[in-house]
Amino acid sequence: MESETPLPLDRNQVVDRYFLEHRAKVIDVAAFLDRVDRASGGDDDDFRLRSLRAAIGILLDGESDRAQRVLDLLSDPSEVPIDRAPMKGATGAWDGFEGDQEGNAG
Amino acid sequence: MYIDPHVHMVSRTTDDYERMALAGCVAITEPAFWAGYDRSSPKGFFDYFSILTDTEPKRAAQYGIAHHTWLCINPKEAEDPVFAREVIDLIPDFLDRPNVLGIGEIGLNKNSRNELEILEAHLQLAADRDQMVLVHTPHLEDKRKGTRLIMDAIANFGRLDAGRVLIDHVEEHTVREVLDRGFWAGMTLYPDTKCTPQRAADIFEMHGTERLWINSAGDWGPSDPLAVPKCREEMRRRGHLEATIRKVSFDNPLKFLSQTGRFKTEVTPTR
Fold first, then answer.
1. Cβ of B113 and A78 within 8 Å?
2. What pLDDT is recorded for position A44?
3. What is the DSSP track for B202-250?
4. N or C: which end of chain A has fewer CB within 10 A?
């Protein structure tokens, strides 16, 4: 379906306008993963890190709708209400995610 | 000129009202929400509803901004259903105040059974009093599941017209389903945890501009009360038409909110 409000920029214009901003974000992610590796102690199998590595895999798979698919990957896939809220906040990833440390989805 | 249809000014300084007015804000709506702590008694909500219907309209009018509100107990305080129902019992006495647009922001937080029970109690009140509804959808990993549970609850309830319900905080993985089920949808512009102005512009390009608006949801956490004009500027920089920018930041909220019969975009500055 063709959008009623298509992006008015061509690909070169998109890259010219947004490259530096996203170069910085990629380096931030790399530095974050380095920081995790340098840190001592703690859990080395955190579901958030496994989810993040799997999300990075989505960025590289060449398919479309990456943002939607990353959000889906980070979502609780269950469908029925839980008995009681365990806390008020959210962690940003589903704690039942079974992907591995190499970024493979479970 | 723009409308910010979701902003928690009770958590912001008067300077923010001034900055929003300078950026072109003419009207806002402020849903009741979680204050960052649990109130110790329903009387705390009586005071809060009084602030939303009396204090904030006066503060906004100083800068020529028309202030409106939605009333409820937020799902973050719905895990105690007895307490929540005592708060809901307070709401009818406020519904006739001139700046009250309806019930909101109701919804789910962690998608629990108690939250769902209190959501349904709010839907009942909305239907009984012919009120419009503003819906909060859960955060982060809980959003997709909660958005579906909420839409199912409204559909199963059966007494509310989807065209009079706005499902807020949609993102790429929920926006299409919300629109396809006939609801209005809101995108909240947050620096980290919801849509950035750039992603909101992307979503307009991918999903169109019908029944879709943007808001700042500025509150006590990381948020930006000028997020709506920043998204307008992002769209302008991409080359979108001024009519398109106006539609998503003024015409669409005006169209939805005007169904209440109480929404206005003009107020005489009192300062």
1. no
2. 79
3. HHHHHH-STTEEEE----SSS--TTHHHHHHHHHHHHT--HHHHHIIII
4. N
Distance CA B101, CA B103 (A): 7
Exposed / middle / buried, residue B143 (Cβ in 10 Å: 0-12, 13-18, 19+): buried
Domains and CATH numbers, chain B: 2-260 (3.20.20.140)
The angle formed by the CA atoms of residues B133, B139 and B141, to the nearest 5 degrees, is 130
Enumerate the domain spans of chain A: 11-40, 42-76+94-106
Digit-coded pLDDT (tens) for A5-61? 999 999 999 999 999 999 999 999 999 999 999 999 888 789 999 999 999 999 999
* Pairing mode, strands B212-215 and B100-107: unpaired
What per-residue confidence (pLDDT) applies to B167?
98
Q: Does A15 touch chain B (CB under 8 A)?
A: no
* Mutant choice from A5, A10, A22 vs B, greatest count of B C-beta within 10 A: A5
> How far out from the chain centre does Cα B182 lie?
18
Q: What is the pLDDT of residues B177-194, one digit of tens each?
A: 999 999 999 999 998 899
CB contact under 8 A, B139 and A83: no
Please tell me the distance from the alpha carbon of residue B116 to that of residue B136, in angstroms, as a whole number.
Answer: 12
CB B91 within 8 A of CB B49: yes
- Report yes or no: A83 at the B interface, CB cutoff 8 Å: yes
Number of C-alpha atoms within 13 angstroms, CB side, residue B25? 31
B240 vs A contacts (CB less than 8 Å): 5, 8
Quick one: pLDDT at residue A1? 56
